[in-house]
Specification:
Elements: E1 3-9, H1 13-28, E2 31-33, E3 42-47, H2 52-65, H3 68-71, E4 76-81, H4 82-86, H5 88-94, E5 100-102, H6 110-118, E6 124-126, E7 150-154, E8 156-157, H7 168-172, E9 176-177, H8 180-192, E10 197-201, H9 210-213, H10 218-226, E11 233-236, H11 246-254, E12 258-263, H12 271-277, H13 283-296, E13 301-308, H14 315-328, E14 332-337, H15 355-378, E15 384-393, E16 398-402, E17 414-417, E18 427-435, E19 440-444
Parallel strand pairs: 1-2, 1-3, 3-4, 4-5, 5-6, 7-10, 10-11, 11-12, 12-13, 13-14, 17-19
Antiparallel strand pairs: 8-9, 15-16, 15-18, 16-17, 18-19
Length: about 450
């Protein structure tokens, strides 16, 4: 009899990688992955609780999915990831439908947990120290949940920053880098399977290797990855200005496979707010790093994220943020409203900001960024760019893809027509004939 397994992965792309690794471990044990939860014997929900909205989504998903125990063939519901790590005991108390919790460092035991559930057990706790090292061998078992032509490469786990608003160190532990050898092996295996684009991720990508090799070694890792046959594009996400080295900038200049794209979460543009956030940076340092990147690569695309409504954020401090965004003109920018997370120093700070004000400030920044983005998109008119094809919209007879300046799910899309059939994962040269606030529209040229 088949043992069907279904996964629901919530939250960030780092969580997605964990889900893919767990799925590979389960398949090796004889479980058959299915996309329809109604056909699954075991359902795993890999949860997120980084902010309040993510916490609520995780809880709602668990309760909704539990219905498959009545309407489907589900015999077991496993909650994994950050919610399991943070609220291990509360989950069983509040949601008796859950059969097991699996912590953020206990993924290698996921198949044992599933087997125990099918043998009739419930109330299973599978937890380890959050500072345990990863079992690197399991990474090569992962089953991609993305389209087959791109994949996320998670190069480390945990975080040492301890920002005052963030619970990640309590759920993911201290920063632990994977070895270059294991990352090379995983990347080579994925490239041989047809992956052409790799998105390098971690909680703090730019300090990769500091714990293993005594200093940041992201540049050396990138150099090694660029030698792997089959890789076309490499994109860097979650690099921090204060730890982005000159060596990393230089390798981005030298290697054609590394896209002129980088994600640098700045969080704010006011030094006083950055200090309250516990960020080890300043407006001046961030500006200098941005200027260094643009001087080295004039065509670089810089993405960032910021937080509005941090405790005590005054009109003057918000004005500093507006000024910062206006002057630096980031190519891509996302905004979160501050979320008051229990167990963090920021949650206990005075002068918590009203939700309405947080949202107003978020909307103001997004409107400002929309104009900046529209202006930058307009400058692409008439240019021909290389696009990786993600799919086709049949009803509109149009293809959709991404340029070197676009990461999946978070950035813009290039829509284009073609006289010839193109497959997902192929590259196309597209002439840009039209633009919107965030997207580009054109036609394939041959």
């Amino acid at each position: 009899m088949d043992k069907n397994i279904a996964f629901i992965s919530l939250g960030c792309d780092k969580n997605r990688v964990d889900s893919e690794v767990m799925l590979g471990i389960l398949k090796e044990r004889g479980y058959c992955p299915v996309s329809d939860e109604a056909q699954a014997d075991i359902i795993v929900i890999n949860t997120c609780c980084f902010i309040k909205d993510a916490l609520e989504e995780s809880i709602e998903t668990i309760l909704e999915t539990a219905e498959y125990k009545n309407s489907g063939r589900c015999k077991g519901l496993i909650v994994a990831g950050c919610l399991a790590q943070r609220y291990e005991n509360e989950i069983f108390e509040e949601m008796p439908e859950v059969d097991a919790v699996v912590g953020t460092t206990a993924y290698e035991g996921i198949a044992d947990v599933a087997d125990r559930i099918l043998d009739g057990e419930s109330g299973i706790h599978s937890m380890k120290s959050i500072d345990d090292n990863m079992d690197e061998a399991n990474a090569q078992k992962r089953i991609l949940s993305t389209a087959g032509h791109y994949a996320y490469l998670k190069i480390s786990e945990g975080c040492d920053n301890h920002c005052t608003y963030c619970v990640i160190p309590k759920m993911r532990g201290k920063h632990r880098s994977r070895t270059m050898e294991s990352l090379e092996a995983e990347t080579k295996q994925l490239a041989e399977a047809g992956v052409k684009e790799f998105l390098v991720v971690a909680q703090d990508t730019s300090i990769y290797g500091r714990d293993l090799y005594g200093k940041p070694m992201l540049h050396e890792l990138l150099k090694r990855l660029c030698r792997i046959e089959g890789i076309e594009w490499i994109k860097l996400l979650y690099c921090y200005a204060e730890t982005l080295t000159d060596e990393t900038i230089q390798i981005m200049v030298e290697e054609d496979k590394i896209c002129k794209y980088i994600d640098i979460p700045i969080q704010h543009g006011s030094d006083s707010v950055l200090k309250r956030m516990g960020r080890r940076t300043s407006r001046k340092l961030i500006t200098e790093r941005i200027e260094a990147l643009r001087a080295a690569m004039p065509d670089i695309c810089i993405r960032t994220t910021i937080i509005t409504g941090f405790p005590g954020e005054t009109e003057e401090e918000f004005g500093e943020l507006v000024d910062f965004v206006s002057k630096l003109k980031f190519e891509k920018l996302g905004v979160f409203t501050y979320s008051q997370e229990e167990g963090t120093p920021a949650a206990l700070m005075d002068n918590q900001i009203d939700e309405e004000i947080k949202e107003e400030r978020k909307d103001y920044i997004m409107e400002l960024q929309k104009n900046i983005s529209a202006e930058k998109c307009t400058k692409m008119l008439g240019k021909t760019i290389k696009v990786i094809v993600d799919g086709r919209i049949p009803e509109e007879d149009v293809y959709c893809g991404r340029s070197q300046s676009d990461a999946p799910d978070i950035d813009g899309i290039v829509f284009f027509k073609s006289d010839y059939e193109i497959m997902s994962g192929d590259f196309a040269d597209v002439r840009i004939d039209e633009t919107s606030d965030y997207d580009l529209i054109g036609e394939a040229v041959y």
